[in-house]
Amino acid sequence: MANILLVSGHPDLNHSLANKTILTKMEESDLPFTLRRMDLLGWDFDIAREQEYVKQADIIVFQFPLYWYSFPAIIKNWVEKVFAHGFAYGSTGNALKGKHLLLSFTVGGGADHYRKDGQNRHPIEEFLYSFEQMASLCQMKYEKPVYSFGMAYIPGVSSEEDRNRVTDLSISHAERLMDALRSLRKKTAH
Ligand SMILES: Cc1cc2nc3c(=O)[nH]c(=O)nc-3n(C[C@H](O)[C@H](O)[C@H](O)COP(=O)(O)O)c2cc1C
User: Fold this and answer.
1) How far does Cα 92 stand from its chain's mean position?
2) Torsion angle of alpha carbons 166, 65, 43, 132, nearest 10°?
3) H or E segment at 88?
4) Residue 1: what pLDDT?
5) What is the Cα 11 distance to its own chain's centre?
6) Is 10 in a helix, a strand, or coil?
7) Contact at 8 Å (CB) between 143 and 98?
8) 19 with 71: CB under 8 angstroms?
9) pLDDT tens digits for range 27-66
10) 128 CB near ligand 1 (under 6 Å)
11) How many whole angstroms from its chain centre is CA 111?
12) Which of 11, 109, 121, 131 makes a 20 to 30 Å CA pair with 85?
């Protein structure tokens, strides 16, 4: 069966509702996966060890909260170091070839913010071109991303109702992600 590597890009899961709930739901499930947490790894880590995790994986999931229309700096730092030239790309960089890349992320803004006439002026997919191209350069298969809108919860500011809504959305996000991973695992069974 295909191995799943889930790279969690939240910088502080102790101060997270959405990503924390998604990861907890996944850990409670019977879906096997290896988890790398940026909030525990930090900025400076053993690159070769992370590359070993990558090599063992068939499916790589980036799980993150959308920050400034992209992934948080701490997971970008991991990608910059781990997906190195000669490993991930370049004439001798074939370590990621044929692996699947699946983005799973939470979006603070509502769906109505991500329209041509909305606050963010572009549909969410248009903010993902750099990820699609990262996958292409690394000879990976870019999978349909799993994302949820309206996921911002600010303690002391948001209401209890918001807390419940974001929790419910996070649970259904985790279910959609697990469904996607289960069907991908079936397709890539070896
Ligand atoms: C530094 C920072 C940048 C953010 N940038 C965006 C953004 O560009 N677009 C957006 O819709 N939400 C943005 N948000 C909201 C987060 O996406 C949202 O709070 C997060 O997905 C909730 O997940 P969590 O509970 O796991 O932290 C941002 C939040 C922070 C703290």
Assistant:
1) 26
2) 150
3) none
4) 82
5) 13
6) coil
7) no
8) no
9) 999 999 999 999 999 999 999 999 999 999 999 999 999 9
10) no
11) 19
12) 11
CA of 71 to the centre of ligand 1 (A): 10
Query: Which domain range does residue 169 map to?
Result: 4-187
Can you name the residues that pair with 146 across neighbouring β-strands? 104
Q: How far apart are CA 113 and CA 124, in angstroms?
A: 9
Q: What pLDDT sits at residue 92?
A: 95
CATH of residue 45: 3.40.50.360
Tens digits of residue pLDDT in 95-114: 999 999 999 999 999 999 99
Domain tally for the chain? 1
Determine whether the shortest distance from the Cβ of 142 to ligand 1 is under 6 A.
no
- To which residue do tokens 């996944």 refer? 26
Token pair 């502080």 in the structure block, residue: 12
DSSP secondary structure code for residue 128 in this structure: G
Task: Give the start-end residues of each E strand in 31-95.
Answer: 34-37, 59-65
